[in-house]
Amino acid sequence: MSHILWITNGRVIDPANGRDAVGDVFAVDGKLVGSLTDQQQADATKVDAQGLVVAPGLVDIHVHFRYPGQTHKEDISSGTRAAAAGGFTSVVCMPNTSPVCDNAGTIQRIIDKVSRDAVINVYPTGCLTLGMKGESLAPTGQLKAAGVVAMTDDGACVQSNEIMRRAVEYAKMFDLPIMDHCQDESLTEGAVMNEGEWSLRLGLRGWPKAAEDIIVARNVILSEITGAHIHMQHVSSAASVDILRRAKDRGVPVSGEASPHHIEFTDAKLANYDTGFKMNPPLRSDVDREALIEGLCDGTLDCIATDHAPHTATEKDCEFDYAPFGIIGLENSLASTLGTLYHSKRLTLSEVIALMTHKGAEICKLDAGTLSTGATADICIFDPDEAWTVDAEQFFSKSRNCPWHGATVKGKVKATYVAGKQVFDGSTITA
Amino acid sequence: MSQSLSWNRKDLIDVEFLSREEIETIFTAATAFKKAMEADDNKQPYLDGRTVVNLFLEPSTRTRLAFEVAASRLSADTITVTGAASSLTKGETLRDTAQNMAALKADMIIMRHSASGAPHYLSEVVDIPVINAGDGSHAHPTQALLDAFTLLEKFGSLDGKEITILGDILFSRVARSNIICLQKLGAKVTVAGPSTLVPKGFEAMGATVCHDLKKALENADAVMLLRIQHERQTSTHFPSIGEYTSMFGLNKARAKWLKPGAIIMHPGPINRGVEIDSELADSEQSVILQQVTNGIVVRMAVLHLCYCHHKGIPIELPT
């Protein structure tokens, strides 16, 4: 007996296919189809999406699910449930686990765990260098064979230009993108927040934008000479956007992502030393915030990625200097991004959905992010206008380190489907 | 003297939150304590039977001693806990350390901490008064208050007075608190020193930024020298101590650039021969030791006011 899904009456927005109209979405046995036979229609599970948006399941190419080794913060079960509740159906996990993902065995371990515990699609990444130490190359070919979709030392930017050059040159042979957390560490020793007026006032060590800009520029140069695709993670600085824009104009194969918090907040949020706003890269100035939005609007930045980085309340409950970097955002990412980009009238609904679906998927070459006939039936149904108050205590994530806690946002996920099966019904996980 | 002082804070975290009136209230109380001290009336009863904990998680001599003396002259029992002797070295969190102190019936906590913002955090964790004795590069409110108190003793009013703060401004909590406090009292503040330690960004706090020592000194009514904070720098901020002294060290020849009657201040600890010539530190122009003495009465005032507000008791002063 086939499993048949028929979502009707919704405003179907599928940016990859230029579709934005009220209509139907059909899926048979987990794949999207163009129409149903009369018999299939009779057998279908019918979902009325009147007044709601029916979009491809959201894609986030930058999350930390902390498995293996740091499962007190998050694990595959809690992380994928948080993602499903946020409308996400595919995520790319960073390799800074314990042990780190610099060997095929650890990737296999994650894939096994995902097959048992995950309610959405999870794609691992491999470390660029052994131990994420930036000294010698990780076994890229073996990691690719084990299933990674990108190479990255996220959180520990490769400092040696020689190692980075060889790493990207080598990864290109396997057609794997390199994702880089752009940070020149010589400029950020002891730094805990953006360098600027607020860091001076608060007496906190500043993380200058130049530390990001220098590495973004380096990566552009290395991408240009090697032809390798380098993706800049969580771009936070106006000058980095400018460097990327010029590089893309020349046809250099670089890309970039922006995070919901960097396009919404500035470093003024740190006035009370709230560790809930401590992340890396740090919140920047209003000029940077505006430049990131511009970059998203003109295509310089390719996608939105949350950098969902769970830490326990205990870990964050301390002096600002000692708190770990990172915040979580999967469960409110859609609403927060809609607030900053759509409700503010900077982008259309379709453009925002593109940033959160197929554009990220294309960077990592995932089979995700569209409602194309024949594609896997990963679907997100949401009400773009429904207001709700973010309550981190109610999150599916194990952690609560969410800077939007208590904020009223607009845009509520009503259902999430993975391969045609409902995994989230608007309030509970149904997988 | 008016006995109807009004004070509405249990904590002193930062001068930034204080109004000019509040600062003047502290000085009114400090003046009363100073008069009593000068009349050899050394013990005031206001914190009798109370326990004041000095939680000093970063090395300190002057500030710690001044708080101990201030608390003991208010008749409090004082307990000092230093970083090395605390359970923080065993992995206890600041929250737990502080809550244990509250559970041990401490009545106030005075904290010195190397992390900026730590007293702010502490004040949210415990209900008893928290007094900031210096946090990271952020704030040192009682130092700024005693500096302003010393200047007021000298000049009567700070309205229109020009104060130059010279040295390592970037890493200095004393500089930050003074920039804020002195401006609240009507003074103009210039911050001076090498460009790497005195970034332009301080203009956003209302200060004039100057890298020319002569210009920084010639209009100053007072110059406040700061130590080079080796422990906070990443060693890349200037070539060497020798170069610093040759460019920005205050010596007798350079002190001549100052107006007659201008005074020299230093919060200590002094590095003689580095930021200031030994002779100058001991000269007539120097009020460095007056600052230290005033540190007692200003801190007595702060402890007394915050405790009275916390307990909801009327503020009495020695007569």
Short key terms for the protein model shown above:
heterodimer; A: 431 residues; alpha/beta; TIM Barrel; 8-stranded mixed sheet; 5-stranded parallel sheet; 18 strands; 30% helix; B: 319 residues; 4-stranded parallel sheet; globular
State the major sheet of chain B.
Answer: 5 strands, parallel
- Helix-and-strand structural type of chain B: alpha/beta
Order of helices and strands of chain B: HEHEHEHEHEHEEHEHHEHH
Oligomer: heterodimer
By DSSP (H or I, 4+ residues per run), the number of helices of chain B equals 11
Label the CATH architecture of chain A: Alpha-Beta Barrel
Class based on secondary structure composition and strand pairing of chain A: alpha/beta
Radius of gyration of chain A (CA) equals 21 Å
Distance between the termini of chain B: 8 Å
Helix content of chain B: 25-40%
> Helix coverage percent of residues of chain A?
25-40%
Low-confidence stretches of chain A: none
Q: Can you tell me the CATH class of chain A?
A: Alpha Beta
Q: And the CATH topology of chain A?
A: TIM Barrel
Q: How would you sum up the global shape of chain B?
A: globular
Please describe what this structure looks like.
The complex is a heterodimer of chains A (431) and B (319). With 431 residues, chain A is of the alpha/beta class. Chain A has a single domain (58-363), classed as Alpha-Beta Barrel (TIM Barrel). Chain A contains 14 helices and 18 strands. In chain A, strands 1, 2, 3, 4, 5, 16, 17 and 18 form an eight-stranded mixed beta sheet that branches. In chain A, strands 9-10-13-14-15 form a five-stranded parallel beta sheet. In chain A, helix 3 (104-117) runs parallel beside helix 4 (140-146) and helix 8 packs parallel to helix 10. The longest helix of chain A has 18 residues, at 209-226. The model of chain A has no long low-confidence stretch (mean pLDDT 97). By secondary structure, chain B is of the alpha/beta class. Chain B contains eleven helices and nine strands. In chain B, the strands form two sheets. A five-stranded parallel beta sheet of chain B has the order 7-6-5-8-9. A four-stranded parallel beta sheet of chain B has the order 2-1-3-4, with helices on both faces. In chain B, helix 6 links the parallel strand 5 (162-166) and strand 6. In chain B, helix 5 (141-155) crosses helix 6 (173-184) and helix 5 packs across helix 11 (288-311). The longest helix of chain B is centred in the last third of the chain and has 24 residues, at 288-311. Chain B is globular. The mean pLDDT of chain B is 94. Chain A binds chain B through residues 189-190, 196-197, 200-205, 272-273, 317-322, and chain B through 93-95, 113-118, 120-121, 135-139, 170, 173, 176, 199, 201-202, 204-205, 234.
